Amino acid sequence: MTTNQQPQRPAVDALGTPPQDHGTDNLGFPHDDRHDRGLEFDVQTLLARRRVLGILGGLGATAALAACGTSGDDATASSTSGSSASSSTSSSSSASSSGAPGSTPDAEVPDETGGPYPGDGSNGPDVLDDSGIVRSDITTSYGSSTTRAEGVPLTINLTVTDAGNGYSALAGAAVYLWHCNRDGQYSLYSQGVTEENYLRGVQATNASGTATFTSIFPAAYSGRWPHIHFEVYQSVDQATNDGQIVKTSQIALPEAVCKDVYATSGYEQSIVNLAQTSLTSDNVFGDDGGIHQLATVTGNATDGYVAT
Protein backbone atom coordinates (compact mmCIF):
# COMPACT_ATOMS: atom_id res chain seq x y z
CA MET A 1 0.00 0.00 0.00
CA THR A 2 1.45 3.36 -1.00
CA THR A 3 1.03 6.61 0.91
CA ASN A 4 2.52 10.04 0.43
CA GLN A 5 3.40 13.33 2.00
CA GLN A 6 0.36 14.97 3.56
CA PRO A 7 -0.38 18.59 4.60
CA GLN A 8 -1.17 19.52 8.18
CA ARG A 9 -4.12 17.90 9.89
CA PRO A 10 -7.46 19.67 9.57
CA ALA A 11 -8.95 21.38 12.60
CA VAL A 12 -11.99 19.11 12.50
CA ASP A 13 -12.53 15.48 11.59
CA ALA A 14 -12.51 14.19 8.03
CA LEU A 15 -16.19 14.92 7.56
CA GLY A 16 -15.89 18.35 9.15
CA THR A 17 -18.18 17.54 12.06
CA PRO A 18 -17.66 17.41 15.83
CA PRO A 19 -18.82 14.39 17.88
CA GLN A 20 -22.59 14.27 18.17
CA ASP A 21 -24.38 13.30 21.35
CA HIS A 22 -26.99 10.65 20.58
CA GLY A 23 -27.91 9.80 24.13
CA THR A 24 -25.87 7.37 26.21
CA ASP A 25 -24.57 3.87 25.64
CA ASN A 26 -25.21 0.95 27.97
CA LEU A 27 -22.34 2.12 30.17
CA GLY A 28 -24.03 5.48 30.70
CA PHE A 29 -21.54 7.41 28.55
CA PRO A 30 -22.39 9.80 25.71
CA HIS A 31 -22.80 7.74 22.57
CA ASP A 32 -21.26 8.89 19.31
CA ASP A 33 -22.77 6.79 16.53
CA ARG A 34 -20.03 7.64 14.07
CA HIS A 35 -18.13 4.74 15.63
CA ASP A 36 -20.72 2.23 14.55
CA ARG A 37 -22.45 3.41 11.37
CA GLY A 38 -21.06 0.54 9.38
CA LEU A 39 -18.52 -0.03 6.65
CA GLU A 40 -20.06 2.50 4.25
CA PHE A 41 -19.53 5.33 6.72
CA ASP A 42 -15.96 4.25 7.43
CA VAL A 43 -15.14 4.11 3.71
CA GLN A 44 -16.62 7.59 3.25
CA THR A 45 -14.62 8.82 6.23
CA LEU A 46 -11.40 7.33 4.87
CA LEU A 47 -11.98 8.78 1.41
CA ALA A 48 -12.75 12.18 2.92
CA ARG A 49 -9.63 11.98 5.06
CA ARG A 50 -7.59 11.10 1.99
CA ARG A 51 -8.98 14.09 0.13
CA VAL A 52 -8.12 16.36 3.05
CA LEU A 53 -4.64 14.91 3.63
CA GLY A 54 -3.83 14.49 -0.05
CA ILE A 55 -2.80 10.84 -0.25
CA LEU A 56 -1.97 10.71 -3.92
CA GLY A 57 1.49 9.25 -4.39
CA GLY A 58 4.23 7.44 -2.50
CA LEU A 59 6.69 8.33 0.23
CA GLY A 60 10.35 7.97 -0.56
CA ALA A 61 10.49 5.36 2.19
CA THR A 62 6.99 3.90 2.26
CA ALA A 63 6.05 2.77 5.75
CA ALA A 64 3.98 -0.35 6.22
CA LEU A 65 2.92 -1.74 9.56
CA ALA A 66 3.40 -5.50 9.32
CA ALA A 67 0.58 -7.53 10.85
CA CYS A 68 1.71 -9.52 13.89
CA GLY A 69 5.31 -8.34 13.46
CA THR A 70 7.97 -9.63 15.82
CA SER A 71 10.95 -7.97 17.40
CA GLY A 72 14.11 -9.00 19.14
CA ASP A 73 13.04 -6.72 21.99
CA ASP A 74 9.93 -8.75 22.85
CA ALA A 75 11.54 -10.37 25.91
CA THR A 76 12.64 -6.99 27.24
CA ALA A 77 9.18 -5.52 26.77
CA SER A 78 7.66 -8.53 28.50
CA SER A 79 9.86 -8.29 31.57
CA THR A 80 9.40 -4.52 31.74
CA SER A 81 5.65 -4.91 32.11
CA GLY A 82 5.90 -7.82 34.50
CA SER A 83 4.15 -10.01 31.97
CA SER A 84 4.81 -13.72 31.69
CA ALA A 85 4.98 -14.67 28.05
CA SER A 86 5.62 -18.29 28.97
CA SER A 87 2.30 -18.60 30.76
CA SER A 88 -0.98 -19.64 29.17
CA THR A 89 -0.85 -18.49 25.55
CA SER A 90 -3.56 -17.44 23.14
CA SER A 91 -2.56 -17.01 19.51
CA SER A 92 -4.15 -14.93 16.80
CA SER A 93 -4.30 -15.03 13.03
CA SER A 94 -1.94 -17.37 11.19
CA ALA A 95 -2.69 -15.65 7.92
CA SER A 96 0.19 -13.19 8.20
CA SER A 97 3.89 -13.84 8.47
CA SER A 98 6.14 -12.88 11.34
CA GLY A 99 6.86 -9.55 9.72
CA ALA A 100 10.46 -9.76 10.95
CA PRO A 101 12.95 -7.35 9.38
CA GLY A 102 13.84 -8.47 5.88
CA SER A 103 10.74 -10.59 5.38
CA THR A 104 7.70 -9.74 3.28
CA PRO A 105 4.37 -9.82 5.14
CA ASP A 106 1.47 -11.54 3.43
CA ALA A 107 -0.42 -8.27 3.63
CA GLU A 108 0.09 -4.87 5.14
CA VAL A 109 -2.24 -3.65 7.85
CA PRO A 110 -4.99 -1.80 5.94
CA ASP A 111 -5.85 1.84 6.48
CA GLU A 112 -8.81 2.39 8.82
CA THR A 113 -10.69 5.32 10.28
CA GLY A 114 -9.16 6.87 13.39
CA GLY A 115 -12.64 7.02 14.92
CA PRO A 116 -14.17 10.03 16.68
CA TYR A 117 -11.71 10.16 19.62
CA PRO A 118 -8.21 10.56 18.12
CA GLY A 119 -6.92 13.39 20.29
CA ASP A 120 -4.66 14.45 17.41
CA GLY A 121 -6.33 17.78 16.66
CA SER A 122 -8.42 16.45 13.78
CA ASN A 123 -11.51 16.23 15.99
CA GLY A 124 -11.23 18.52 18.99
CA PRO A 125 -8.42 17.99 21.53
CA ASP A 126 -4.78 17.70 20.45
CA VAL A 127 -2.30 16.01 22.81
CA LEU A 128 0.42 15.56 20.23
CA ASP A 129 1.98 18.92 21.00
CA ASP A 130 2.00 18.26 24.77
CA SER A 131 5.43 17.92 26.36
CA GLY A 132 4.37 14.73 28.16
CA ILE A 133 2.98 12.80 25.18
CA VAL A 134 6.26 11.12 24.17
CA ARG A 135 6.32 8.19 26.60
CA SER A 136 6.27 4.43 26.72
CA ASP A 137 4.11 4.00 29.85
CA ILE A 138 0.66 5.35 28.97
CA THR A 139 -1.21 4.03 32.01
CA THR A 140 -1.31 7.41 33.78
CA SER A 141 -2.36 10.94 32.90
CA TYR A 142 0.31 13.65 32.83
CA GLY A 143 0.15 17.37 33.56
CA SER A 144 -2.51 18.53 36.02
CA SER A 145 -3.75 14.95 36.62
CA THR A 146 -1.83 11.83 37.58
CA THR A 147 -4.80 9.45 37.52
CA ARG A 148 -3.86 5.87 36.68
CA ALA A 149 -6.08 3.76 34.43
CA GLU A 150 -6.80 0.47 36.18
CA GLY A 151 -6.92 -2.87 34.39
CA VAL A 152 -5.05 -6.01 33.38
CA PRO A 153 -1.49 -5.05 32.31
CA LEU A 154 -0.83 -5.07 28.57
CA THR A 155 2.44 -4.42 26.72
CA ILE A 156 1.92 -3.47 23.07
CA ASN A 157 4.65 -3.95 20.43
CA LEU A 158 4.12 -2.49 16.96
CA THR A 159 6.75 -3.12 14.30
CA VAL A 160 7.01 -0.73 11.36
CA THR A 161 8.75 -1.93 8.19
CA ASP A 162 9.82 -0.17 5.02
CA ALA A 163 7.83 -1.55 2.08
CA GLY A 164 10.09 0.33 -0.31
CA ASN A 165 13.21 -1.38 1.03
CA GLY A 166 12.38 -5.08 1.21
CA TYR A 167 10.24 -4.66 4.33
CA SER A 168 13.30 -3.92 6.43
CA ALA A 169 12.89 -2.50 9.93
CA LEU A 170 12.12 1.21 9.89
CA ALA A 171 14.00 2.74 12.82
CA GLY A 172 13.23 6.29 13.95
CA ALA A 173 9.60 6.32 12.82
CA ALA A 174 6.97 7.27 15.40
CA VAL A 175 3.78 5.57 16.53
CA TYR A 176 0.96 7.45 18.25
CA LEU A 177 -1.24 4.92 20.06
CA TRP A 178 -4.51 5.30 21.97
CA HIS A 179 -7.42 3.16 23.23
CA CYS A 180 -10.30 3.16 25.71
CA ASN A 181 -10.05 2.33 29.41
CA ARG A 182 -11.51 -0.58 31.38
CA ASP A 183 -14.95 1.08 31.31
CA GLY A 184 -14.96 1.77 27.59
CA GLN A 185 -14.20 5.48 28.02
CA TYR A 186 -11.75 7.53 25.94
CA SER A 187 -9.71 10.13 27.79
CA LEU A 188 -10.30 13.74 26.65
CA TYR A 189 -13.75 12.85 25.23
CA SER A 190 -15.92 10.59 27.41
CA GLN A 191 -18.05 11.89 30.26
CA GLY A 192 -16.08 11.76 33.51
CA VAL A 193 -12.62 11.53 31.89
CA THR A 194 -12.46 14.70 29.76
CA GLU A 195 -9.71 16.03 32.06
CA GLU A 196 -7.63 12.86 31.70
CA ASN A 197 -5.09 12.07 28.96
CA TYR A 198 -4.10 8.53 29.92
CA LEU A 199 -3.91 5.63 27.45
CA ARG A 200 -2.36 7.90 24.80
CA GLY A 201 1.30 8.17 23.89
CA VAL A 202 3.96 8.52 21.20
CA GLN A 203 7.04 6.34 20.86
CA ALA A 204 9.88 6.21 18.34
CA THR A 205 10.64 2.85 16.74
CA ASN A 206 13.93 1.26 17.78
CA ALA A 207 16.59 -0.38 15.61
CA SER A 208 14.23 -3.33 15.10
CA GLY A 209 11.48 -0.99 13.93
CA THR A 210 9.42 -1.60 17.07
CA ALA A 211 7.59 0.89 19.28
CA THR A 212 6.63 -0.47 22.72
CA PHE A 213 3.91 0.77 25.06
CA THR A 214 3.00 -0.25 28.61
CA SER A 215 -0.76 -0.03 29.04
CA ILE A 216 -3.87 -1.89 30.23
CA PHE A 217 -6.21 -4.18 28.33
CA PRO A 218 -9.04 -2.12 26.78
CA ALA A 219 -12.73 -2.83 27.30
CA ALA A 220 -15.26 -4.07 24.80
CA TYR A 221 -17.78 -1.28 24.51
CA SER A 222 -21.15 -1.40 22.82
CA GLY A 223 -21.00 -1.82 19.05
CA ARG A 224 -17.27 -2.48 18.63
CA TRP A 225 -14.86 -5.41 18.83
CA PRO A 226 -12.01 -4.77 21.34
CA HIS A 227 -9.34 -2.75 19.55
CA ILE A 228 -6.41 -0.34 19.74
CA HIS A 229 -5.92 2.72 17.51
CA PHE A 230 -2.65 3.99 16.07
CA GLU A 231 -1.10 6.47 13.67
CA VAL A 232 2.38 6.15 12.14
CA TYR A 233 4.57 9.17 11.42
CA GLN A 234 8.01 9.48 9.81
CA SER A 235 9.54 10.71 13.09
CA VAL A 236 8.70 11.89 16.60
CA ASP A 237 9.25 15.45 15.39
CA GLN A 238 6.63 14.94 12.68
CA ALA A 239 4.20 13.40 15.18
CA THR A 240 4.50 16.24 17.68
CA ASN A 241 4.51 19.12 15.20
CA ASP A 242 1.38 18.56 13.11
CA GLY A 243 3.35 16.42 10.68
CA GLN A 244 2.30 13.99 8.00
CA ILE A 245 0.41 10.83 8.94
CA VAL A 246 1.85 7.84 7.09
CA LYS A 247 -0.70 5.26 8.26
CA THR A 248 -3.86 5.22 10.40
CA SER A 249 -5.31 1.89 11.45
CA GLN A 250 -6.58 -0.30 14.30
CA ILE A 251 -5.47 -3.50 16.02
CA ALA A 252 -7.96 -6.24 16.90
CA LEU A 253 -7.53 -8.37 20.02
CA PRO A 254 -8.13 -12.17 20.01
CA GLU A 255 -11.44 -13.46 21.37
CA ALA A 256 -9.97 -16.10 23.72
CA VAL A 257 -7.74 -13.54 25.44
CA CYS A 258 -10.59 -11.03 25.69
CA LYS A 259 -12.79 -13.59 27.41
CA ASP A 260 -10.06 -14.37 29.96
CA VAL A 261 -9.49 -10.68 30.71
CA TYR A 262 -13.17 -9.82 30.91
CA ALA A 263 -13.71 -12.55 33.49
CA THR A 264 -11.62 -10.47 35.93
CA SER A 265 -12.93 -7.79 38.28
CA GLY A 266 -13.74 -4.44 36.70
CA TYR A 267 -14.49 -5.71 33.19
CA GLU A 268 -17.97 -7.10 33.88
CA GLN A 269 -19.80 -4.98 31.28
CA SER A 270 -17.32 -6.07 28.62
CA ILE A 271 -18.61 -9.64 28.89
CA VAL A 272 -22.04 -8.49 27.72
CA ASN A 273 -20.66 -6.21 25.00
CA LEU A 274 -18.27 -8.84 23.61
CA ALA A 275 -21.14 -11.32 23.28
CA GLN A 276 -23.09 -8.84 21.14
CA THR A 277 -20.51 -8.47 18.36
CA SER A 278 -17.87 -10.42 16.45
CA LEU A 279 -14.87 -9.81 14.24
CA THR A 280 -16.98 -10.49 11.18
CA SER A 281 -19.79 -8.13 12.21
CA ASP A 282 -17.56 -5.31 13.46
CA ASN A 283 -17.81 -2.19 11.29
CA VAL A 284 -14.01 -1.91 10.98
CA PHE A 285 -12.73 -5.49 10.97
CA GLY A 286 -15.81 -7.12 9.45
CA ASP A 287 -14.79 -6.94 5.79
CA ASP A 288 -12.09 -9.59 6.33
CA GLY A 289 -12.56 -10.63 9.96
CA GLY A 290 -9.51 -8.61 10.98
CA ILE A 291 -7.21 -11.19 9.39
CA HIS A 292 -4.41 -8.66 8.87
CA GLN A 293 -5.01 -6.70 12.07
CA LEU A 294 -5.34 -9.39 14.71
CA ALA A 295 -2.54 -9.20 17.27
CA THR A 296 -0.60 -12.16 18.56
CA VAL A 297 -1.08 -12.12 22.35
CA THR A 298 0.82 -14.08 25.01
CA GLY A 299 0.54 -14.09 28.80
CA ASN A 300 -2.25 -14.47 31.34
CA ALA A 301 -4.80 -12.35 33.18
CA THR A 302 -2.84 -12.47 36.45
CA ASP A 303 0.61 -11.36 35.27
CA GLY A 304 -0.48 -9.45 32.19
CA TYR A 305 -0.21 -9.85 28.43
CA VAL A 306 2.04 -8.89 25.54
CA ALA A 307 0.31 -8.00 22.24
CA THR A 308 2.50 -7.99 19.13
From TrEMBL:
<dbReference type="InterPro" id="IPR015889">
    <property type="entry name" value="Intradiol_dOase_core"/>
</dbReference>
<feature type="region of interest" description="Disordered">
    <location>
        <begin position="1"/>
        <end position="36"/>
    </location>
</feature>
<keyword id="KW-0223">Dioxygenase</keyword>
<dbReference type="GO" id="GO:0008199">
    <property type="term" value="F:ferric iron binding"/>
</dbReference>
<feature type="region of interest" description="Disordered">
    <location>
        <begin position="70"/>
        <end position="132"/>
    </location>
</feature>
<dbReference type="InterPro" id="IPR006311">
    <property type="entry name" value="TAT_signal"/>
</dbReference>
<protein>
    <submittedName>
        <fullName>Dioxygenase</fullName>
    </submittedName>
</protein>
<dbReference type="InterPro" id="IPR000627">
    <property type="entry name" value="Intradiol_dOase_C"/>
</dbReference>
<feature type="domain" description="Intradiol ring-cleavage dioxygenases">
    <location>
        <begin position="148"/>
        <end position="223"/>
    </location>
</feature>
<feature type="compositionally biased region" description="Low complexity">
    <location>
        <begin position="70"/>
        <end position="105"/>
    </location>
</feature>
<dbReference type="Pfam" id="PF00775">
    <property type="entry name" value="Dioxygenase_C"/>
</dbReference>
<dbReference type="GO" id="GO:0016702">
    <property type="term" value="F:oxidoreductase activity, acting on single donors with incorporation of molecular oxygen, incorporation of two atoms of oxygen"/>
</dbReference>
<keyword id="KW-0560">Oxidoreductase</keyword>
